[in-house]
Amino acid sequence: MKVLAISDQIIDRLYSTSVRETYPDVSLVLSCGDLPYEYLEFLVSIYNVPLLYVPGNHDPDYTLNDSRARAHGCENIDGRSLFMKKLFFAGLGGSIEYQPGTPNQYTQLGMYLRVYRMLPSLIWKKIRSGQRLDVLLTHSPPYGIHDDDDPAHEGLRAINLLMRVMRPRHLLHGHTIFYRQNLQDHVTNSNGTKIINIYPFRVMNLE
């Protein structure tokens, strides 16, 4: 299955009515956050395929009754999991807290608590289906992998815990920008999980 994964930066050739000719046969769009919801809505309308997303640290706080706080026609999987197109997905949005009180920013402890709330459902779905978690969609990278040493881009340790417990086949994230992309690898394998920094976008096959 061909997937378009996006994060953090609008790309003009994607925000175009010819995107289906430029990148054909896309079956699913995944967003790792910090993108205008109009951009997500444009892509889901052009491709007419499902779009799953998690919020980034610059996205608004999700409010059920506020239409500006969600991308219409898209599925917010922050703190949730689901099966789609025979694949098992889970999502965890947000980043490390560097501006207290800002939506979608969490302390390390705060994110651990979010993960602990997710785990019972994730483990039950894994047991019931007999299927390994295929894709963990996050905004932030794990701690020590693709993160940075500045306060805003430190990785989240709770993601490392989630990786150890659920052993996802793929972890897709954004948030950190590889300015020297020719010198740094955007793909890292760790304990059976392929961790991919998809900033600003990647077209890939998921099976």
Explain what this protein looks like in three dimensions.
Helix 3 (108-129) runs parallel beside helix 4. The chain is globular. The mean pLDDT is 93. The chain is of the alpha/beta class. Helices cover 23% and strands 24% of the residues. The chain contains 4 helices and 13 strands. The protein has one domain (2-205): Purple Acid Phosphatase, chain A, domain 2 (4-Layer Sandwich). The strands form 3 sheets. A 6-stranded mixed sheet has the order 5-6-9-10-12-11.
Short account of what is shown:
Helices cover 23% and strands 24% of the residues. The chain is α/β, with parallel strands linked by helices and 207 residues long.
Say how many strands there are: 13
Strand order of the largest sheet: 5-6-9-10-12-11
Report strand %: 15-25%
**Mean pLDDT over the full residue set:** 93
Percent helix: 10-25%
**How many domains in all?**
1
Q: What CATH architecture label applies?
A: 4-Layer Sandwich
Query: In one word, what is the shape?
Result: globular
- Tally the helices: what do you get? 4
Strand count, sense and barrel status of the largest sheet are: 6 strands, mixed
Structural classification: alpha/beta
**Roughly how many Å apart are the termini?**
6 Å
What order do the SSEs take from the amino end to the carboxyl end, as H and E?
Answer: EHEHEEEEEEHEHEEEE
Give the radius of gyration: 16 Å
Low-confidence runs: none
**What is the CATH C-level name?**
Alpha Beta
- What is the CATH homology-level superfamily? Metallo-dependent phosphatases
Fold-level CATH name: Purple Acid Phosphatase, chain A, domain 2
